[in-house]
Amino acid sequence: MTTKVASSSTAYDAHQERSRQEQWRADKWMMVGVFFIGTAVLGLIGLPFFLYGLSLQIRAAKEGLSVRPVLVTLIGYLVAVDAALNSLGWALDLIGNHTLLARVFLMSWGNMFDGGYFWHYNELAIGGATAPGEKAWVIALLPLMFSMRIAAAIGFLQMKRWGHQWLVVTCWFGVIAWTGYVANMTIFFDVRYAGVVFPVVGWWLYDIFYITPYLAIPYLHTVNREIFSD
Amino acid sequence: MNKLTMSRQDRRRWRAMVVFQLVAYGYLLGMFLLQLYMLSNRDW
User: Fold this and answer.
1) B39 and A183: CB-CB below 8 Å?
2) A170-191: per-residue pLDDT in tens?
3) CB A185 to CB B32 under 8 A?
């Protein structure tokens, strides 16, 4: 009896260890992928790395190893990428607004889709975007929401209880942010869309991918919370 | 999720999520359509 318990416990430990190793192997590829995707400009380079890591994780699950559910992986990395892209763009606008990168990258974006990043750009005392209300969103969301969301995504990917809880909090924060931001885009419509190359439809096509992470809310509220541990 | 196996609490939560999504995405769609309407009115 003792021998049997001991051997099954050893098999369990070996299974757990192998699962952990395979998850980490897949995560390394996916982390490299989202690092590149999160820079925006080098995004396409990151995609094959991410997809390869994802395929490793799916293969490990098919072999019967205890790896993370695919939906948790997709939501976690999606939120991390979303937060990284917004942090990079808005840190450039808030702090690095006179750099060559900001003047090329952000003003080109402004010229194509959103006049808030083109109209009188860098002409106010604080620098960067000049559209009414825009800078207030940058100041509120960059150091608070997006920083929290990156931390929450990491905790969520580690299947921690706090990661799940903070992802719920920050996803609801996202609802507030996008409700306000879209209202701002509509109220100051003439500043945001006059003279841009792809008004309205262009902005929505581009931004819908940033808005949709709150699609995760129904999943986060209905998932079995016991799969997340302390 | 199979609705027959849901508890009352689960069912309420599920319904609340459906309502939330209708409101949240309805608002976004409304703003998008309003912006399209405004675009059709402007002669900048």
Assistant:
1) no
2) 999 999 999 999 999 999 999 9
3) no
